Amino acid sequence: MKKVFSYTLVIAFFFCASNTVAQSKTAANPQRFTENTDLRKVGTSPAKIKSIDSLMQSFVDQKKVSSVVGFVAKGGNIVYKKAFGWKDIENRVPATPDDYYIKFSQTKAVTSVAFMTLVEKGLVKVDDPVSKYFPGISDQVVTAVNSDGTYETRPAARPMTFAHLLSHSSGLGAGLVGKIRQIERRKADSIRKASGAPASATVPGQRTAGTARYLKNDMEALAKYPLGFDPGSEWNYHVSTNMLGYMIERISGKPLREYIKETILTPLGMNDTDWYFEPKKLSRFVKVYNAVNGNLEPASNMYAQGTISKEQTYAEGAIGLNGPIQDYAKFCQMLLNKGTFNGKRILKAETIDQMTKINQLPEKNSGGKGFKFGLGFELYNQDKKPAPEVSNSAYAWGGLYGTEYIIDPENDLIALFYLNMPKRETLYPKFLSKAYQLFK
């Protein structure tokens, strides 16, 4: 009995000790950002801050950007949060860190995290076949397309899983599938023109004008096509996260927008981030410009305007979120904290490790040399990173209009850089190097 009793005490001691360590680590994770940081305490100086200021202002002075905003936090301490340039050039409205930006593909990471909350609830597994939840998904790979749009297929080498959707290696809409759809569009256009019907206006990530549109409709239409390659054998960007969003709807029983607001945006206090807003919010958006021959020219603001609607039925998993830089920084800090922020746990630490430490792609893929992708994020490594100072533990993804971020556990750092321009010079790596140099 003594031995058993002693053994029990030892086990209890180690359990309590390890639990205390776990609690102390959790307690060390900042649950709020610290504003007005003492720069010396985090290992930097006003002179280094001015160096970033000069770089950012140079982007504006040289008319490479209309506006730009940067955000850097180390250990939850905001070291840099400044905007430069103009929210509205014509009316001379200065840019601020509180302005709204079109995030485009930064939506994908949020959707990926939302899906993993379903995994943690035991409702689905990452390696489950998608067909288990969506029997209509294709299990065929296209091998040839005829001139009339008909095609030939073979059975896929393996079932598509949720890991394939999370890593853009599902084969959905890839390869020769594009040719099939192109032929179909030409036929549809010919029929429309012959009948005299007007073309429909669709804003990606939003609603088709004059119609009720649902993610369900788009994904069920996509599922009717074969795959462009065997799941897991290649990387093909974008549409997989839309299917992932639809799977969230099928598994949770809730619209994607509702589920993401309920599980991520509201708990983290991301109160200014959404797919759609009230009309008064339109003034919060930065206007879009193009850099053309050394000048800035007004561009279409249709994506900002498309967010304003009282009755919306459509939210994509791949794009569509919008809002200010610090809202998204909360999401980044939650990931850096291994799942917690604002006093709320979104995911377990081991789930975030699963998403951000394991490459899901074959060594050779269309992402290029050294390109690696986990479950929702690009994984940086010694062969590929946006700046030399970035550690091999860092991960990230960005958006079409120049919204970028990085989460670097080794350096306890997050950095975000926002533009609102469809065509631009590559400026982010210069900012990122300066962000890391703050602490060198």
Q: Radius of gyration from the CA trace? A: 24 Å
CATH top level assignment of the largest domain: Alpha Beta
In the CATH hierarchy, what is the architecture of the largest domain at level 2?
A: 3-Layer(aba) Sandwich
Task: Give a short account of the largest sheet.
Answer: 5 strands, antiparallel
- Overall mean pLDDT: 91
Helix content: 25-40%
Low-confidence sequence ranges: 1-27, 204-210
Specify the overall morphology: globular
How would you describe this protein?
The chain has 440 residues and is of the alpha+beta class. The strands form six sheets. A five-stranded antiparallel beta sheet has the order 3-2-1-15-14, with helices on both faces. Strands 4-9 form a two-stranded antiparallel sheet. A two-stranded antiparallel sheet has the order 5-6. The chain folds into two domains: 32-107 and 255-437, DD-peptidase/beta-lactamase superfamily (Beta-lactamase), CATH 3.40.710.10; 125-252, no CATH class. Strand 2 (77-88) and strand 3 (93-94) form a beta hairpin. Mean pLDDT is 91; it is low at 1-27 and 204-210. The protein has helices at residues 2-28, 46-61, 106-120, 162-166, 177-195, 215-222, 239-252, 256-268, 302-305, 325-336, 349-356, 428-437, and strands at 67-74, 77-88, 93-94, 101-102, 140-145, 151-155, 289-292, 295-298, 322-323, 340-341, 344-345, 378-379, 395-396, 404-408, 413-418.
